[in-house]
Amino acid sequence: MCRISGCYVAGFGCLCAAAAETGGRAGLAGGAGSADAQPTLLGQYADWGAYTASPGGNKVCFALAKPKTTKMEPAGRQRGQSYVFVSSRPGEKVKNEVSVIIGYPFKSSSDATAEIGTAKFAMYTQNDGAWIKNVAEEARMVDTMRKGVDLTVKGTSGRGAQSTDQYSLKGLAQALDKIEQDCK
Q: Could you read off the pLDDT of 22-37 as tens digits, one per residue?
């Protein structure tokens, strides 16, 4: 199970990861899911992909990117692939929810940070996911991301390793416009 929006939804984060790995042609982790649950690539916009899927009949649209650079301190620590995504779920009236899958379990009760230029946003963590701590700032964060050059996400693993992932924001605005168009 993978977490999104403060709860666990079977396969959603895995669905996002599968979309990133295969250009939108993968199903849920382990090959489960119907054709509607498989992510469909709506378009690739520079470093961001726009996707849609309907796991369990609930439409989800998301923009997804992998980091351009990653750094772990101490060096040599192993971790899984990390992703940042912005998702909309019209059935739940959720629009442009920013989340991160970091590729390792975060340190318990720790926060991650997201930085875009001089703007800094605290993110709460659970397992391998992070979400904006102050939901009232989410629209400002997305607007800042649309206008920014890059996003830097920093976190601490359960074993004390520090990670810094840098994502390009090139193409995000177009990917968000596409999912807004398709996710009504």
A: 443 333 233 334 556 7
